[in-house]
Amino acid sequence: MDDTNSIPDPSSTPRADGLGETPAPASEGARGRVGNRAFLRALLLAGGAVLAAVVLAGGGVAVGAAIADDDDDRGSSATDTDDDGDSTTGGTQERDDDDADDATPADLTGVGTDSADELTAFTDAASAAADGEAVAIELKADGSADVTLETGDGAETEVRVTAGGETSVTSSDPADADDTAPRSVLDAASIEAIVTAALAEADGRILEIEADEDGASPYEVTVITGAGQLVEIALDSSMAVVGSSSAGTDD
To answer: Among candidates 168, 98, 108, 118, which has minimal Cα distance to 141?
Structure first.
């Protein structure tokens, strides 16, 4: 075949667009460098994704820790509030303690006496321990009694008398310039009459007797009934009942 009709070598034939010769295919070394760069880019992208995941996870842990701390703070605040008695737990505990200090009829089971002689024995023991005449007596759950004595000038002394008759002065109040001698006292005769009148009004046990300055009702008596009801009874100087109240209702 004639040389003029042979097919030209593409590598040496100029391009029709005038941009020069068609570049030769890339060598194996060039393709290897391109592949290495692509691999490095893939590693960098993968590393960035892992780093982002770690950062996000760390942020989640931090947020979770902050929420837990906030919950702990709220729990601590609730505990403090409770300790102040303003909320359910602490308030309940403090209110329960206060209620325990206030005697209720259920706490007075077996307290008191229906014996005028027993009451007189308490007042006599107190009078032997300090000056004055008995103007009040209050019986305690441990079998003792607090007896208030008052002198002619109005000075007062409180004496604790145990069930065995031992005495101790628990308080004293000197007389003021305007104090006077007691108008009514609790001697043996008046105690006998008071017990008889009070228990006729409310069957039970005497818890307290007080002689005061009220001319209309100089004697006040507290009785606890067999049902545990407290009854307040006011007596005049002739030991007649002039007033009685129980469970907050006046008769």
So the answer is: 108
Evaluate if pTM is beyond 0.85: no
Q: Please give the biggest Cα pair distance in the chain.
A: 167
* pLDDT tens-digit series, residues 15-72: 444 444 444 554 454 455 545 555 555 555 555 554 445 445 555 544 455 555 555 5
The number of C-alpha atoms within 13 Å of 186 and in the hemisphere containing its C-beta is 30
Euclidean distance between CA atoms 142 and 126, whole angstroms: 17
Residue 152 carries which side chain, given as an amino acid letter? G
Interatomic CA distance for residues 33 and 51, integer angstroms: 27
